[in-house]
Amino acid sequence: MRSAKKEIMEGIEATSSKLVANNTVEYTKPDGTRVIRFHHTDILEFPKGGQVIFNSGGWKTPTTKDRMNRLQSYATIIQEKGLWYLTTDRNPCQNKDTWISFFDGIEIDNYKVVNPRKLAHKKEEYLLKQIQVYCKKLKELKELPAPNGGDCWDCSFQTNDERTMGDLSGSDHLKSHLKEKYIHGSLIMNALKWAGYRCPELIVGHRDSVVRSVKRYLKSQLGLVT
To answer: Is residue 226 part of a domain?
Structure first.
């Protein structure tokens, strides 16, 4: 869905602004910092000192990565095995030893990362393994559970705009489901709706589609690469 510049910039103080791509605005802060804003996230910041700061806002999507790569020339974001890396090398695919684990707030100055984190991917790798185990169990179930009154409250209760309580309260309940391997119908329905199925009840018989949707949904909600 396209957003107008006025909607994207709502509440943002800027001395100038312009659309540079779909749902993407370039604007300048009063202190002179140039910013690239995608939807409602400032994904790139260019302080007056010449640095560049990257921030996915927890939305590690192909489009976010594309915007980051196209709208600056200091570094390249690369994806491998569900994780993002950043490199300033001109031939990134040939020199993997230059890859640095991506994290929100990673900063480049004079084509060098000034604040690397050795364990930046530790939590992501842990969650990816949990999702893999969860979806394996889901795929092996003899019968998929249907939504019922005993499901997780955060997953089952929806507001008038069809958001769940979990959408409002955060992702901790999903992390607990992964830890407990708690599979229930409401989570499956939420995943199918998130994946764009208008009649998710008709998809539950297609196990591969269900597993794929749940995997992508969990990654999205937990701020992982989708």
So the answer is: no
